[in-house]
Amino acid sequence: MRKAQAKKLPLAPDGKYNDKLVTRFVNNLMWSGKKSTAITIFYDALDKVSKITNEDGYEVWKKALQNVTPGVEVRSRRIGGATFQIPSEVRADRKISLSMKWLIRYSRERNGKTMADKLAGEIVAASKGEGAAFKKKEDTHRMAEANKAFSHFKV
Hints:
- The chain has six helices and two strands; from the N terminus they run αααββααα.
- By secondary structure, it is mainly α.
- It has a domain at about 35-70 and about 90-145: Ribosomal protein S7/S5 (Ribosomal Protein S7, Orthogonal Bundle), CATH 1.10.455.
- It has a two-stranded antiparallel ribbon.
- Strand 1 and strand 2 (about 80-90) form a beta hairpin.
């Protein structure tokens, strides 16, 4: 028998914007428990975003997250010896999680001197509907659309 599911620990909002989403993003950005470094990188990136776009960096970041958030995804399911890619809706919590992870992953793969530069570049690109993270969302949606014929196999 499975154990009870672990309780979600409540997140403390960050100091600058008083937003739990920022804390969650910083936690995803963090490596080896170095939270203060991750916070510095994030705030530096938002400062650079506001210099590039002449808008509030925080608002641009929120828009970028919204642009990268997927609505549907495909899940593999074995039926009669064949594996089908079945499109399914993404849970609200997972949507946020995926969009943050994609933004961070593709900013790490970008060219730039510091992580703050890379993250700022990816945020600006995503807010305009460009960049690798936005492309990942588009690819995910395209894959779900292509496999719509198998949606009656839903889990």
